[in-house]
Amino acid sequence: MVQSIKGRWSFIALVFSFFLAFSKAAAAAPLDKELKDTLADHGFTGQVEASLEERLGRPVDPELADLGRLLWFDTIAGLNDDNSCGGCHSPLSAFGDSQSIAIGIDNNGVVGPNREGPRNQRRTPMAINTAFYPALMWNGRFAALSNDPFDNSSGFIFPQPEGTSLSYNSHLLQAQAHIPPTERVEAAGFSFVGNSNDMRDEVVNRLNAEPNYIDLFGNIFPEVADGDAITYDMFASAIAEFEFTLVFANAPIDQFARGHKKAMTNGQKRGALLFFGKANCVSCHSVSGDSNEMFSDFDNHVIGVPQIVPSDANVVFDGPGQNEDFGLEQVTGNSSDRYKFRTAPLRNVALQPAFMHNGAFTSLRAAIKHHLNVPASVAKYTTDHLPTDLQNPIGPMADVLARLDPEVSTPIALTKKELDDLVEFVRDGLTDSRAKANHLVDLIPDEVPSGRDTLTFESQVCQ
Ligand code: HEC
Ligand code: HEC
Predict the structure, then answer these.
(1) Which of 21, 40, 159, 345 gives 20 to 30 Å between its CA and that of 360?
(2) Can you give the pTM of this predicted structure?
(3) Where residue 65 sits, what CATH number does that domain have?
(4) Which mutation among 136, 137, 285, 318 tests ligand 2's pocket best, with the greatest number of atoms within 8 A of CB?
């Protein structure tokens, strides 16, 4: 008797759970269909990562990339002897900054929350996926004129003194790698006497004086093995090759677009529909055409980010109070471009500890909410959550708000649940798990070919 009651109950439970599963699937089906159709309408395929080598026209060279990795972490290319690409582009924050505003030369040798030293002007963006960016930097000032970073046929444009002189490089990242060692506040320091070409010459002089580098370059470039000097172009191609290995564009949204419906949670799916719909994010964070599915139109807009002012900076900020960042105007000289910044590409965005060009926000939710009602976000903004040397009165905001891009000038009301979904989508739906710190930590070398001390990497908590 007891047996049969138990049996009956379990039969009922079974039927009930079938019913639940069925109704869940029935609820998911329209959501899946709506998202699938939305992605198709926006031309999103989830296949951009697979296009890398085809667009390069060759396979990525693992040996050259590994040499680039060693250079990334070696202070030999920093003429001030205390910084490398990795000091700012940290693998523990998706190859972006560990800070709200970059600290370059005269740092304390730490990469992470306890990094100290004079500030530069902006936050270091992630180097991950930059292989697909047609315009680099927060104001897009290094750009492929073809709008395709793999295509140099129309030239690559940089501010003076480089201009279009780097257009012989086959990819925009090879051209870009000519710049950081020439930036005095980032790596070169103020004591070296000479122009950008002199600095690049000095970097290769250093490499050519180091037998380990002669061997490593010699393994790849036969002319070096035959006794020719290492050139700056070789250095740049190694750095760019390493960056080509930092393509992590297989997030849940990509898997979903390729037909794996379970790759996303229902919350992520609802958030995605808001992103492409009512929340209007896609009007700037676009995924079609030249955007290479990077969630940016690679154009510049004013979205009214609070202007953060460091106590100790080695860059003179803009404006009469030297407490502003004019963004695109710095490049064009046109005052109508004031406060415009490049739409931030959003893949893996949650793996950073701070957001926006100056890290004004340290919570992803606050960074997203800012867009939904910019004046309200600015009115209640404080710097309390920032490191103490950034807890200063913010720069003037009235003129910034007067110039807001029309796409963010009308507040959008979302319910708490909708905002939760939107944040879940941006945080998890756009994150490729290979970009997380626990995967990338292994890229930090224990020692570098020059034998110099390496920087100390601290783990970082992101939210
Ligand atoms: C002092 C810190 C610092 C160092 C060192 C540094 N960078 Fe950067 N990097 C930045 C900052 C800050 C930006 C954005 C600057 C801006 O927009 O004005 C940037 C931008 C970039 C970008 C463009 C990213 C994007 O989203 O468009 C690439 C690529 C890059 N750096 C590569 C490198 C390489 C390669 C090295 C070493 C050779 C290097 N960086 C060294 C701070 C640094
Ligand atoms: C008017 C164009 C525009 C719209 C619409 C827009 N954004 Fe942005 N977004 C930007 C620009 C420009 C930046 C970089 C601003 C800066 O740093 O000064 C940015 C930055 C961000 C960042 C910070 C990224 C980082 O790496 O720091 C996030 C997150 C973000 N947007 C999400 C969204 C979401 C979600 C929506 C929809 C609610 C949205 N954006 C709508 C232009 C836009």
Answers:
(1) 159
(2) 0.94
(3) 1.10.760.10
(4) 285
